[in-house]
Amino acid sequence: MPYRRTARPGALQATPAHPIHAYWGWTSSCSSAPYSEEMDGLARFDDEFRRKFRELLIWRRDVRRFLRTPLPPGLLDELLGLSSLAPSVGLSEPWRYIRVETPAVRERITAEFERANAAALSGLTGDRAALYARLKLAGLREAPVHLAVFTDHGTAKGHGLGRQSMPETLDYSVVTAIHTLWLAARTVGVGLGWVSILDPAQVSCILDVPGNWSFTAYLCMGYPEEEMDFPELERAGWERRTGVEQSILTR
Amino acid sequence: MPYRRTARPGALQATPAHPIHAYWGWTSSCSSAPYSEEMDGLARFDDEFRRKFRELLIWRRDVRRFLRTPLPPGLLDELLGLSSLAPSVGLSEPWRYIRVETPAVRERITAEFERANAAALSGLTGDRAALYARLKLAGLREAPVHLAVFTDHGTAKGHGLGRQSMPETLDYSVVTAIHTLWLAARTVGVGLGWVSILDPAQVSCILDVPGNWSFTAYLCMGYPEEEMDFPELERAGWERRTGVEQSILTR
Predict the structure, then answer these.
(1) CATH number at residue A106
(2) In A, residues 53-112, which contact B (CB 8 Å cutoff)?
(3) Which of A48, A84, B104, B144 has a Cα at 20 to 30 A from A140?
(4) Residue A38 lies inside a defined structural domain of this protein
């Protein structure tokens, strides 16, 4: 059965406006339209790519142990450019990023994490509390990159399409951008850790963001101390992965 | 600087318990631990993989125009197995899938979409309303696969870790699984469309799910009528993508 296949007009003639970046071989300007550079304007994926893509999913980790080595200049911007290829409801692109660089601000966030983490620990008892206390749940002091991510609930972009009955899809769009960033970072050996043990109101206050921005995630990024193909929480004995079959019903 | 690199013990000796699947070259049992089959137990990603990974992001689409061709037997289960490699807060794995196959149930969901879509249209006026009315926003009648996705807020898995101050991270975990499914599907030419123009309470009622399951997404899947490297909403003149730079602040 024939497909209609459509590449953006002009894709075949596109010439990079900037030097090809060493990592991905695409133009490094985030604002240039990020369309395909395939020779025939159509993407093809083969068994080898699928095998490696599965490896990428397997080796993605929630990283809490970072080297202090900084990222190469420009790499974070490139990764954020890739993350903006994520889907967004109504093409609203509601992701807002804050690079947290000021040491005093990082310190306030870290203190807030420690307060929230102590509160979480206080809700546990016995062996579970002891195990929780031994876990390392964030790499805030070592990670060279701190990135706070917000969802702009005030954006007019997208004209509200797709989110009248489910406004939370705006937040979900930002989550897919974070996940894209996560996978893209891993392809260049950069680890990402999602810190969720934070009070959103406190983080928004510390970072002084517009009132209609909702806090979505606080990310640590940097080169990981080690690479693993299984979750650190599994190694620590906190929880185990289970198969997906038991989570599938039919109606 | 030396990394400590860790592959799961036994990864080197792992032998597939089932025939290698034609698409990804991994064992088709979802319940077998999905660890790396790399020869040295460590994943490597090169420029060619990164280039193709970017192509994958570029060619992922929110698909609304499907062929009626069914998926090959077993493919959806394989894709759901891959989706379970997504991150989840505290390793809670809160994703719950419902394959909606009964024609009468699909019809009720489609009617509910049409009702919610008419309600959304009624909030618009003028040119924007006319443009909205022309958009095709779901492929519910053609897509061979209907998949409803829920978040289990009653799960004990993960022991609450990471979600005391941000319970919404449970929903966010499910969103990363959906995004993983989306990308994995695209690697085998299968399109996915996320239908959010639905009332969560109505969908939960129609599908008769446990009370602590929260509706996250309704997905259509199947082979797309056409492939595009830019959003359908952009082609239709609804909205345009913009660069990510203006969404990055520093503190």
Answers:
(1) 3.40.109.10
(2) 53-60, 62, 67, 69, 77, 80-87, 89-93, 95-102, 105
(3) A84
(4) no
